[in-house]
Amino acid sequence: MGQPVVHWELWSRNPEKVADFYAEVFDWNIQHIPEMNYRMVDTGSDAGIGGGIMKPDEGPMPGNMAFYIDVDDLAAYRDRITKAGGKIIVEEMEVPDTGTFCLFEDPDGRVQGIWKQMA
User: Fold this and answer.
1) Can you say whether the dihedral through the CA atoms of 87, 105, 52, 35 is positive or negative?
2) What tens-digit pLDDT sequence spans the chain (119 residues)?
């Protein structure tokens, strides 16, 4: 039996800016925990998992992380992404018989995806 993903983290040089970006674009509830210098992310959905945004205290920054966020309208979210300071990398690509996705860059330069399941 496989092991499920139970949490994700975005390591950032500017976690406040990145948290604001994801909250603005995807309406995520992000709670800052000052004593840990950590931002706990609740996506507000029963599907999927939550995560965190943080700035590492030491060591090199890890490589970029990619995950795909389920949305109902790719064009509307592309607009929200650019208005919040992100950059669209791939406008829209279809995965035959499955759905369509877009790739974007967040304020840290991390590439993520938005996904629309085929109806």
Assistant:
1) negative
2) 777 777 898 988 899 999 999 999 999 999 999 998 899 999 999 888 999 998 887 766 655 677 889 999 999 999 999 999 999 999 998 988 999 999 999 998 888 899 998 88
Q: Which residues, including other chains, have CB under 8 Å from residue 67's CB and lie 6 or more apart? A: 8, 112, 113
Cα→Cα distances 51→1, 27, 83, 115, Å: 23, 14, 24, 18
Say which CATH topology domain 8-117 has. Answer: 2,3-Dihydroxybiphenyl 1,2-Dioxygenase; domain 1 (3.10.180)
| In contact, 59 and 103? CB cutoff 8 Å | no
Domain ranges, ordered by start, for the chain: 8-117
Q: What is the pTM of this model?
A: 0.79
CA–CA gap between residue 101 and residue 63 (Å, rounded): 22
Strand 68-70 relative to strand 111-117, pairing:
parallel
